[in-house]
Amino acid sequence: MTAGRTFYRNATLIDGTGAAPVADAVVTAADGVIGYAGPAAGAPAPAPGDTVHDLGGRTLLPGFIDAHVHFGIGDSRQILFNNVEIPRSLHAFETAERMRRTLEAGVTTARDLGGTDAGFRTAQQRGLLSGPRLSLALRLVSHTGGHADFTLPTGVDLHACGGNSISEIADSVQEARVAARRLMRDGADVIKVCATGGVSSPSDTPDDEGLTVEEIAAMAAEAARHGGRPIAAHAQGAAGIRNAVRGGAASIEHGYLVDDEGIDLMLEHGAYLVPTLATFDFEDRVHLMTEKAVRTKRALAERTFERVSEAVRRGVKVAMGTDAGISPHGRNLAELGHLTRVGLSPMEAITAATRNAAELLGLADRVGTVRAGMLADLVVCEGDPLADIALPADPDNIVLVVQGGRTVKDTWG
Ligand SMILES: [Zn+2]
């Protein structure tokens, strides 16, 4: 069934590969797949029955990919209290609304690293809800007292009961294997491990080490025995970052205090850094944070920007992730600007949020670049994001979003 092709013409194309922009480009799509992407001079001519969109000189980009979100969490206080305060039905509607807002901000694919169950992925695939296509971790794995342990000093475990828990506890190599098996059974696309403590967890710090090298390696081995899935490691302090890479993590999430040896290891293993710098834009959200989280975050900021800049300078691969849920949902592309503040060029920031993120998610043969044969995930942005990387951050500047060939946002008059 060919319903005719769709032509997008009169645009500057940034194709996500890092190649120079193509002025006066044409992109065609049919049955949800890109047929042609390149200069107008080499483009096929529209035939009767084809639809032609004139993009008026705007910039055409791949649908963006956010490699680190939490759609199930509205703000950092909810990480603690979601599970006990919010009925599952309300939680589902709130999650769906955050997904829709994220899609309309230009993110057509997202990796949720904890708090969103497999039903959302199915619902999105079936068209029951509008949002990015999902890659899911479901829950995060830590040891007792680690980043996924939400037991308060009173002994009350906020994640022990209720349906919105994001927690898996494992305290030995064998328990780590079982946790990985449970997550894969429940539909995880990626295994999220906590290699250090964190900012929002009640009883640890970013410098505390989390799961051991052996425990992380056991989960990586278990994933490899079942068709392979990447390990995403929450890792903020230097020692835990090294443990995560040695254990086989494909990505270091946050990576704030990576040391020189950690950078060496990341380069050697080809691990991605997902620096989630948007989370440092938090001063207007301190009322949503615990006192411990505010204090920890303020103490981290300066060294984080130094160490992440050093990793970028040394050539560590970067994929864009926002930790939305901790940072605001629906302003994901503000992270592009943060990435330029640690040394990426605007083009490199865009590539981090397109091709690189697609590679990290294992989806580079389908999404992340605008090329013939890829899914037609397209975003049209006002102006030139290479001249002003803040433009895509404002969802009002994202005037067209196409996902798998289907227009999901179209706001220009
Ligand atoms: Zn996170």
Automatic annotation (TrEMBL):
<dbReference type="InterPro" id="IPR051781">
    <property type="entry name" value="Metallo-dep_Hydrolase"/>
</dbReference>
<keyword id="KW-0378">Hydrolase</keyword>
<dbReference type="InterPro" id="IPR057744">
    <property type="entry name" value="OTAase-like"/>
</dbReference>
<protein>
    <submittedName>
        <fullName>Imidazolonepropionase-like amidohydrolase</fullName>
    </submittedName>
</protein>
<dbReference type="InterPro" id="IPR006680">
    <property type="entry name" value="Amidohydro-rel"/>
</dbReference>
<dbReference type="Pfam" id="PF01979">
    <property type="entry name" value="Amidohydro_1"/>
</dbReference>
<dbReference type="InterPro" id="IPR032466">
    <property type="entry name" value="Metal_Hydrolase"/>
</dbReference>
<feature type="domain" description="Amidohydrolase-related">
    <location>
        <begin position="59"/>
        <end position="408"/>
    </location>
</feature>
<dbReference type="GO" id="GO:0016810">
    <property type="term" value="F:hydrolase activity, acting on carbon-nitrogen (but not peptide) bonds"/>
</dbReference>
<dbReference type="InterPro" id="IPR011059">
    <property type="entry name" value="Metal-dep_hydrolase_composite"/>
</dbReference>
